[in-house]
Amino acid sequence: MRIKQYLCSGNQRNIMKKILFIGLVSILFFSCQSSTEVSSPDGTLILRFAQTEDGGIGYRVSRDNNEIIAFSPLGFLTEDQSLGNGFCMVGTKKKKHSSVWETVWGEERFIEDRHNELLVSLRHESGMLMDIEFRVFDDGFAFRYLFPEQEKKTLTITDELTAYRFTQDAEAWSIPWRTEYYEGLWQKRNLSPALPSREGDEPTQDTLCSPVTIEFADGMYGFVHEAALTDYPAQNLYVREGALRTYLTPWLREPIKNEELKIKNEVKAYVELPFATPWRFVVLTKTLPELVASRIMLNLNEPCKIEDTSWIRPMKFMGIWWGMHIKTMTWEQGPNHGATTENMERYMRFAKEHGIGAVLAEGWNKGWEDWKHFDFTTPYDDWDMEYLSRLADSLGVQIVGHNETGGNAADYEKDLDAIYRYHEANGIRVIKTGYVAPIIRTVDGLQWNKGQSGVRHYRKVIETAAKYHIAIDNHEPVMPTGLQRTYPNLMSQEGVRGQEWNAWSTDGGSPCEHVTVLPFTRIMAGPVDYTPGVFRFENSIIPTTRVHSTLMNQLGLFVCFYSPLQMACDLPEHYMEHADAFRFIENVPCDWEQSILVDGKIGDFCVFARQERGTDNWYIGGITDEETREVTIPLTFLNNPSPICSTDGHRQSDRAELFTRSREGEKVPRYTATLYRDAEDADWETRPYAYNIEEREVTADDTIRVRMAPGGGFAMELKINQ
Ligand code: NOJ
Questions:
Q1: What pLDDT is recorded for position 647?
Q2: Could you read off the pLDDT of 686-712 as tens digits, one per residue?
Q3: At residue 628, what are phi and psi to the nearest 5 degrees?
Q4: 361 C-alpha vs ligand 1 centroid, how far in Å?
Q5: Quick check: 599 and 631 in contact, CB under 8 A?
Q6: Does the Cβ of 473 fall within 6 Å of ligand 1?
Q7: Is the CB of 404 under 6 A from ligand 1?
Q8: Is the separation of the CB atoms in 136 and 45 below 8 Å?
Q9: Which of 333, 433, 613, 699 has the fewest CB atoms within 10 Å distance of its CB?
Q10: Is the CB of 363 under 6 A from ligand 1?
């Protein structure tokens, strides 16, 4: 392909340009050469906007002078024309940006946003105006398309041409794009430029959900995803002709007959101008800890739109939940009904006693018999909402509401205000929403939940909930894209093959490896409601299915899997069988000052260390796959000062002085470390309950060695000695 970088296409040049041609070519060449290129703040990553002879648009990326993304196309196909070529560049603008912002909750308190920006303004031969905004960070790059206000008022997008032509062999962790609710096992696939072209244009099962996490042949890591998904379909990705390409989730037209879904040249998005697409971004790092630490996605989202966020509180919760999945309780009313007033009171008193902030109740409302007409404001007769809401107040233990829609988003949306008013009046501050149905019914009929219509629905839910001071834990969601920065009441989401599969999946439950993949894939896209904390592994319903983990692995998940709403999913009586281990769940926080991946390998193991927000205490968690593993953890991170933001946006530390003094021998901060670890003979299959709890004093100069059993893990609490 011939690439010309700096000139408009022949079709578009007007007469004046022709007259000035010779003189201008050299001026344009030199003046545009710098302006179509933008580098990262540290200068190592360079992105170049480029054009082809026919006015096609694209970009290239290099790091340390090596091209890592070769010319990759940008643009769209619309119902009436191709916006992939025929463009003339009409201007560029550059900007530098550096700021630090404070999160309402998160894996760290402060996030730094340092990037350089290039805005390329384009005019299409049809007269259509389109800008592309590029941002280059030290750890990756992003771009989005902007359609300014202009004569044309609407666009019907049939395809997005965005591609990523990586120059080296790679393998990608991914799940197929039609995986129901994203609840699949992530697999490693070849993503090499050398892969043969596919037959035809139609995405197949080779098409992948976004995000994908990439391991490059040279040891570098990548993460491809989108940010700030708004009024647009979620992206999916597929490999063709050596490039990773975009497949937007289509609109569906009823009636749908499963395999007869038309997926070629169908409508993907209806867009009203002016419009900005979601950001497309790629994280590129040399190490896995840097990949996990990237905050490009959050930085690309808009700042918080909720003025008073004091009601949005991270917390742990328990729930009348696991009982239904292991079939000792039912959602619907009957002899084994889970959500009864009596049972809820028992859970709430247990939560109070053990410092757990809230209790979820599923099956409290009418409609579970047929899943057709859920009523979100009418409890079953054996649920006394008034009494329980008063009890919640007096105990200081919240009720987490549950709104399962059975995929009927349209009906739910119709009554949103009334539903949230009812919950708010009953003191409910968090609602778990659910959309169990492979294709949901939106106001536009049957649709993919991650199509444009579904995306609009989820946004409406978040915005409406915010009006009633309600936070959302969204099950069967569209893949998260960092919206929690703008709406921190979107606290957690499922979109994962979670713990419940280990109760009823006929494939025996998720393999040990599964949990060691998630921190590098799904959880990179945002907080996950995985529901860790199973303490009883025997399964009387499907004896061949079970949680593939030791009890210590379950504890490790509380640190390795991030969610500001963290559910301890098992029954109170199961927790009391191992009350000493349950102490870790009581103590572990779910809101952090800073977070570090200490060590890890995708699909093998990981060890995270996190500092509790607002204190000097640290928590470490480790999990492994079916292999036993010994990890070595130097505690040097205890010296990391809390990153504190000064008014001019620079980092400083109020603890730096303490630590400098301590280095000079005056006072070394000492911590009481409590280690919860697998016993020597522990094994997820044979001895999952074998563990030891040890206590000792440590400083930042110490190194801890922990052995994790097959399917095992560990957890550690480090409390600073006053
Ligand atoms: C699926 C959700 O993931 C699960 O947590 C919930 O219990 C059921 N739907 C019922 O709503």
A1: 38
A2: 999 999 999 999 999 999 999 999 999
A3: -75, 150
A4: 11
A5: yes
A6: no
A7: yes
A8: yes
A9: 699
A10: no
